[in-house]
User: Fold Homoserine kinase from Rhizobium viscosum.
Amino acid sequence: MAVYTDIAEDDLRWFLTEYDAGTLLSYKGIAEGVENSNFLLHTSKAPLILTLYEKRVEKSDLPFFLGLMQHLSAGGLSCPLPLPRKDGALLGTLSGRPAALISFLEGMWLRKPEAKHCREVGKALAQMHVAGEGFALTRPNALSLEGWQVLWDKSEARADEVEPGLQNEIRSELNFLRAHWPKDLPDGVIHADLFPDNVFFLGDELSGLIDFYFACNDLLAYDVSICLNAWCFEKDGAYNITKGMQMLEGYQSVRPLSEAEIKALPVLSRGSALRFFLTRLYDWLTTPEGAMVTKKDPLEYLRKLRFHRQISSPVEYGLSL
Ligand SMILES: Nc1ncnc2c1ncn2[C@@H]1O[C@H](COP(=O)(O)OP(=O)(O)O)[C@@H](O)[C@H]1O
Ligand SMILES: N[C@@H](CCOP(=O)(O)O)C(=O)O
Assistant:
């Protein structure tokens, strides 16, 4: 679960007086999530999500994340909106952490997404890419090639504890990606973590996207590759080409991919698989036993990475060329 920082009821009541949010009726920690501490609040006005920003979130990035939600929402994307304080600021402090109130999004995430849901996700991702145009702030992707190397430097010495031979395999993967990473593809604001737990559905209808705390400026097709990794593999590790096809068709129904983007999908997918492998590996090796967070399996992403390595044409992702 992810509640790293506890809050005292009196402090929360005091914090809420800065907002026009009504009076507190109840609050509870939310078990899901990895990065931040989240609480569900019921007030006399409306349900709200309270987020306390934790370890990997830089305070200086918060205006980008919160402003982005406002920009995307104004552009027609369904996503939470930060609630301004009475003084207009979007950010306050609670229990010594930067904290924000955001609107509660109806829906729930799908534990067993089907191909038809992948199509909706592809569409919503493309809508987000379009809605992100014109956003005034920028944020470089801290988890691209350089950031991967930093994570790897911190994990490399113990990597073979997780699987023998990993040291050599990941070292040469990083070399490959450094040499082949595409540079001239369309870029813009990407979500960068659009996993099933960050997409809400009401029945089969997508009700919105959450968790913009990895959002940044990067290649749009890299975001597509993140979604292929996160949505289109089955529990047994097999790639589901029907899901891939639906995801890509859904995306292209809003924003067609260029030939260069399509050609780059295998290398981008290797990069995104490595990115999630590395953060999971780092967390696996450093999260203390008994911590209140569910550690995610790095090897799931190693298997995905190996799959992308043997792709010989983007057609294998379900694209019709
Ligand atoms: N705006 C929201 N509306 C409804 N539920 C939310 C909202 N934001 C977060 N949640 C709940 O909190 C959980 C964790 O949120 P998330 O932003 O993914 O956390 P983290 O950044 O720590 O991974 C989500 O799975 C969801 O259950
Ligand atoms: N999606 C990442 C972990 C980040 O978790 P989130 O709760 O912020 O989506 C992974 O699966 O490794």
